[in-house]
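Q: Could you fold this chain for me?
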Amino acid sequence: MTPINRPAVRAALAVSLAAVLGTTACSGTGGNARLESAEASGDGILRVGLILDNTGDSAFLNAPQLAAAKLAVQDINAAGGHKGRPVELLPVHPDQETAGQANALLTAKADVVIGPTDSSHAAAAVDILSHARTPLISPANTAAGLTGMASGGYYFRTAAADVAQGPVLAKLAKDAGAASISVLYQESSYGKDLQAAVTEAAKQSGLTVLPGAGFRTGGAGTAASSVAKAKPDAVVLIAREGVQSALAELNKAGLSGSRIIMSDGAFARYGSGLGSKALDGARAVVPGQLPSAAFQAKLLAVDPSLKDVSYAAETYDAVTLAALAAARAQDDAGRSIAANLIPVSGGTAAPGSGSAAAPCLTYKACLGGLAAGPDINYDGESGPIAFDANGDITTADFSVFTYGADNNPTPSGRETAGHSG
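A: Sure. Below is the predicted structure, expressed as C-alpha cells.
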C-alpha cells in the first residue's frame, strides 16, 4: 500500500495564544483531578465525544481524526469494550463552534472528549468541560502557554508542546558541525517561546548563540540582514507565516542551503518559489512520526476516501488511553478517567519517583496488564506518552526532513526529545 503523505499543514494551525490566555477566564474546578482519587459514579457505558474544530482550508483535518476515533472504538469493542459493554462514539457536530460542540457532547452524556485541534480553541472547550468534570484530551494542541492552564486537572494532550522541538533544532545544528547559531523568528507567541527554547538548548549543548532577530510577516529583510552580520554557522528559522519571504531574504543575505534549519511551522514544499538550490541541504522538523503502513491500512478500512493522516495516531491514542483509564478505575465517569490517565500512560506526577512498567502496545494487551496489577504503560501509534502532572506528554518524536536542490523535502531521520516531568 502506498503510504499517505503527511502534508505541510502545521502552518495552518496558527495559534493566537493571547486569545487563549488573555480573553477567556478558564477557572476550571478546584483541586487537581489528575492527582485525586475518585469514587465510582458512572452509568456503566463509556461515551466518547469528539470536537472537530477545523473549517476552511483546514477542514480536511477533521477526516483523519474522526477515522482514528472510530478505529479506536472499534478496536476497544473488539477486545470486550468497557466492562463487557460497547464503548460509544457520540455523533460529531463540526458545523458548530467549539463551545457549542462541547455543550452538545455534555448533553449527550460524554464521559471524555477528544479535541480540539486548534490551540486557540482549547480554553473555550476546557471552560465548559472542566466544570462538568469531563476530561478533554487534545491530539493536536501544541501552544506552550497551555501547559498549566487552569482546568482542575481535566485537560490533557497527546501532542507535544511546540517548545519540545527546541533541543532537536539545536541538536541538528550541532550534529552538522555548527559551532554557532543565530535564531530568526516570527514575532508571535509561537516564535518567541520556541526561540527561547532553542537558545537555552543550544547554550546547554555548548553552541555559541549569536544575536538573532524577530520579524513581522512581510518584514523579514532587516532581520535577515541583521542575522547575517552576526556570521553564524547555522540559522534556525522559526515561523508559521511569511516563511517563504524570510527564506528569500536569508538567501539574499548569503545564508542558504545546509546552513538553514527550520521549525515545524516553516516546513513546506517550496520548489520553484525560491531560487535554485536555496534550500539544498537545509533541514526541518515535523512533530510525530509517519504512521505505520498497517495503521494506515486500518484507517483506510474505516474511511476509504482518507487522503491525510495528520493527528490520526494522536487521536487513536487519546481514545485508547481514556478507555484504559476507565478500565483501571472500573468506572466510566469523567472524574475517574482523569484520575487514572497518568498511571495508564506510564507517566508520573512526581519526577524521579520510579521507572515505568514495560510498555503495552494495544488496548487488549494493556487490559491483560491491568489484570496483573495497577501499573501499565501504554505506548501507542504516536509513540510513548507518559503524561506528567500538567497532562503533557514527556517524550516527543520528531521526523527530520532534508531539502534537495529542488527546494523540496524528503524524510531523512527521526529525533526524540523529552523531559523528566
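A (continued): The first helix runs from residue 17 to 22.
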